[in-house]
Amino acid sequence: MSRLQVAVQAARELGLRPLTRYARYQVRLHSGWIRSRTPVGVWDEASLTAWLRPWVAGAAEAYAEYRQSLASPVFFFDPSPT
């Protein structure tokens, strides 16, 4: 089977949109674009505050409190009797 036949069959099986996304990914991968967008770094150099938004506390205890404040006390229903 030629490459053109494989591409036509893949378009029939997968659809044009997923095939286009895959082709775009492959072009970016082989051109080095993805590697340039993901620079190499040492994980020890990055601090938690560098990854968080400015209004989120960076200390471990303060961050845990922040996450607890976001948690919803009720999931699907209120278990307390009314």
List keywords for this structure.
82 residues; mainly alpha; 5 helices
Characterization of this structure:
With 82 residues, this protein is mainly alpha-helical. Among the domains are: 1-31, no CATH class; 47-72, no CATH class. It has helices at residues 3-14, 16-31, 33-37, 48-51, 60-70. Helix 1 (3-14) packs across helix 2. The protein is flat. The mean pLDDT is 81.
What's the SSE pattern? HHHHH
- Shape designation: flat
State the major sheet. Answer: none
State the low-pLDDT regions, or none: none
Kindly report how far apart the N and C termini lie: 69 Å
Q: Which structural class fits the helix and strand makeup? A: mainly alpha
Q: What is the number of E strands?
A: 0
> Per DSSP, what share of the residues sits in E-state strands of 2 or more residues?
under 5%
Number of helices: 5
Overall mean pLDDT score? 81
- Portion of residues within helices: 55-70%
Computed Rg = 24 Å
Task: Write the topology of this structure.
Layout: H1 3-14, H2 16-31, H3 33-37, H4 48-51, H5 60-70
Helix pairs in contact: 1-2
What would you say about this model in short?
The protein is mainly alpha-helical. It is about 60% helix and about 0% strand.
